[in-house]
Amino acid sequence: MSITNDVLTIAGNIGNDPVANETRSGKAVINFRVATSSGYFDQRTGAWVDGGTNWYAVSAFGKLAEHAKASLHCGDPVIVVGRLRQKEWEANGKKGIDVELTADSIGHDLRRGTSAFARRPRPEQAGVAPAADDAPVLDEPTEADRDAWAGAGLRLTDEPDSVEASGDPRDDALTPA
To answer: Which of 150, 13, 22, 8 is nearest to 76 (CA)?
Structure first.
């Protein structure tokens, strides 16, 4: 990891469905935008006052990109930690500055809802089996897991009626029951 002073943490909502691609070298990349809004409660009026909205272009690479593609959707509340970069642009007589974040970590904002984690297996090193204590456990969810998810109003979407907005079946995801 490089040393930088421009590490930023943002909390906001995903503004578009993440778009997955590959770099020229074949590495996975995902891009999406996150909107963050500031606001405060005005005790004099008893109402929330909206502040401005900042938009950030977020990119993630490698396994993080693959996992983000399987986990994130438009509208999801997220927390992103990454390295900040500003780019000036000019097009059609207009000028502006894009604020980009190259993500090091991405997660759902659990202040705003529930989420579930599914560990993905790591490729084993050639010829070396992991020690029994280090071996990932990838069993089906236990009845206790399912009960906890049901208590949170979630169900595993490996059922036939579980599809993404695109019509593709989803795997290893929890949806509202």
So the answer is: 13
Unique residue bearing structure tokens 């010829």: 127
Task: Write phi, then psi, for 127 (nearest 5 degrees).
Answer: 80, 0
> Rounded to two decimals, what is the model's pTM?
0.63
pLDDT tens sequence across 94-106: 998 888 999 999 9
Contact 86, 107 (CB under 8 A): no
Our CA dihedral for 159, 164, 166, 168, rounded to 10 degrees, sits at -40
- Distance from the first to the final alpha carbon of the chain: 40
If you ran DSSP here, which 8-state letter would residue 171 be given? -
Pairing of strands 154-156, 174-176: antiparallel
Cα–Cα distances (Å) from 13 to 17, 57, 162, in that order, read 11, 12, 23
Structure-token match 């891009």, residue found: 31
Q: What's the token pair of residue 83? A: 């390295």
* 55, 98 contact by CB (below 8 A): no
Q: What span, in angstroms and rounded, lies between the C-alpha atoms of 79 and 12? A: 7
Tokens 């705003």 label which residue?
112
pLDDT beyond 80 at 23: yes
